[in-house]
């Protein structure tokens, strides 16, 4: 995974060797390598204020790092198996994680108390995306589905079926479609009106 923060001139990269690397955006020079775990680093998310970088790791933990210096602020055990996906809600008040255990877990960003655990999919959760209006969240899974969730209530609204494992999902800027990348070597565009 890759994230960037223009205000700090940084690119953050999740690496399969259990590290996160920090790079300068202006000249692509390596700033720092941060070893976190012995498993793969799966997903990165910046909180909306840019004060915290969440890192989902294959050891089941999520690490919160200082985006400027890479120091570990806190960590918490998010899933019994691998933590595969992490995202902050649009307000930055909650951290949402998806794991190999097929659950979506919701955490209070300030206290790290678990708010909700949803048995969301049949296999590992790989990716999250929010609609531009921030009312919907999409989750993508190895179970070959994209599920759409109401952000406020947490209720599932719709399930879209694919032919292969869905590795990544995102909304178009206008919110009219969803793009998905799958192990069947396809990228699909889904019309939000028809699914």
Briefly, what is this?
By secondary structure, the protein is mainly beta. Helices cover 0% and strands 55% of the residues.
Structural write-up:
- With 195 residues, the chain is an all-beta fold.
- The protein is built from no helices and 19 strands.
- It starts with a strand and ends with a strand.
On the 0 to 100 scale, the average pLDDT is 95
Return Rg in Å.
16 Å
Q: How would the global form be characterised?
A: globular
| Distance between the ends | 27 Å
In total, how many beta strands? 19
> Quaternary status of these chains?
single chain
User: In which range does the helix fraction lie?
Assistant: under 10%
Q: Strand-residue fraction?
A: over 45%
Secondary-structure element string:
EEEEEEEEEEEEEEEEEEE
> Biggest sheet: strands, sense, closure?
4 strands, antiparallel
> What structural category do the secondary elements indicate?
mainly beta
Which labels suit this protein?
mainly beta; four-stranded antiparallel beta sheet; 195 residues
Topology:
Elements: E1 2-5, E2 10-14, E3 19-24, E4 30-35, E5 41-46, E6 53-57, E7 61-65, E8 72-77, E9 83-88, E10 94-99, E11 103-108, E12 114-119, E13 125-130, E14 136-141, E15 145-150, E16 156-161, E17 166-171, E18 177-182, E19 187-191
Antiparallel strand pairs: 1-2, 2-3, 3-4, 5-6, 6-7, 7-8, 9-10, 10-11, 11-12, 13-14, 14-15, 15-16, 17-18, 18-19
């Amino acid at each position: 995974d890759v994230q960037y923060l223009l205000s700090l001139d940084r690119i953050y990269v999740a690496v399969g060797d259990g590290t996160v690397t920090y790079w300068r955006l202006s000249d692509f020079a390596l700033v720092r390598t941060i070893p976190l775990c012995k498993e793969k680093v799966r997903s990165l998310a910046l909180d909306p204020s840019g004060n915290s970088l969440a890192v989902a790791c294959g050891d089941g933990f999520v690490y919160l790092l200082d985006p400027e210096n890479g120091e570990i602020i806190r960590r918490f055990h998010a899933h019994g198996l691998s933590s595969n996906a992490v995202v902050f809600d649009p307000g930055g008040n909650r951290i949402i994680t998806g794991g190999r255990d097929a659950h979506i877990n919701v955490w209070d960003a300030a206290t790290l108390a678990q708010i909700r655990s949803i048995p969301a999919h049949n296999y590992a959760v790989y990716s999250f995306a929010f609609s531009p209006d921030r009312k919907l969240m999409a989750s993508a899974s190895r179970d070959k589905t994209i599920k759409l969730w109401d952000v406020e209530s947490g209720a599932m609204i719709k399930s879209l079926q694919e032919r292969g494992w869905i590795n990544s999902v995102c909304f178009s800027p206008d919110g009219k479609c969803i793009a998905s990348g799958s192990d069947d070597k396809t990228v699909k565009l889904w019309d939000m009106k028809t699914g």
